[in-house]
Amino acid sequence: MHLEIPALATYPRFKLMEGPTSIQALERLQRRLGGVNVYVKRDDVMGVGGGGNKLRKLEFLIGEAISSGADTVITVGARQSNHARLTAAAAARAGLACELVLTRTVPRTSEAYVTNGNVLLDELLGAVIHDLPASEDAMSFAQHRASELEANGHRVYICPLGGSSATGCLGYAACALEIELQSAEMGVRFDEIVVPHGSGGTHAGLVAGYAALGRSAADVRAHTVLAQDEQARAASLEKATAALRLLGHNAKLSADDLNIDATHLGDGYGAPTDSMRDALRLLARTEGLLLDPVYSGKAFAGLLHDIDSGRYRVGENVLFVMTGGLPGLFAYRDAF
132 and 201: one domain? Predict the structure, then answer.
């Protein structure tokens, strides 16, 4: 395996990270799990905007925006979108104006959900917030707003939902390389990498990166928190294939190559589950680490279920990517 992906250096990139995020062994938790070695990659710990996986995508997206001459970035998401918060933070760091089109996708109306968590930080970061009902098409609104701004002399760059375009996926192709370099340095081979699956860019980027490095797409397991299995699989396949093209690779992927589980989605995106609550409490009380209730909490619940059901053998090494989203905990106060 060649530990490099040369094409990554050919794309504009705006630095938002200070270096590789750490990988930590969950030693106290491991003793409770019967011999499976669980590690976490701390993508929740980054310096800009409270940290989180979207910053990897935004390095390439903001790089592309700056390269295009944009002075304003617009993106879309749910009311408590982590991607929206980090887009606002990245835009502030880059000196760009930012507008967020946020829909009431999740049927939660508590004051904490509507005004706290990520929304509070969006405002602190200086973003203009457009609050839309769930029935509205956020991307159509964003495109109309971009036209208005451009008619007044601005240059606008629109980020997709979750930052999960082919360009955004390059951030997690780069992460696949980062993990493999850390793995080699640690002398630990990770048998499976586990991630949440929302808009699909994190999973697709890792799949593309590993394919570019000659490793199987099935080694990245995603627990979907947004869409059902078939839709999530189609999204990852499309995005991973597009990212591979950007990386100059013609590796053929099929939906069957993708390792996706939808059994921990519950009633839908942003809807709390008992297994999510249990997973949050277990990791907090054994390791002092905090998951979020929308993404990493459900995915970690899926990992714990997989361990309990014997998916992993004693001595196998599993790496869980902690994708951040801590501000969401404060928006979900009434769910605990």
Answer: no
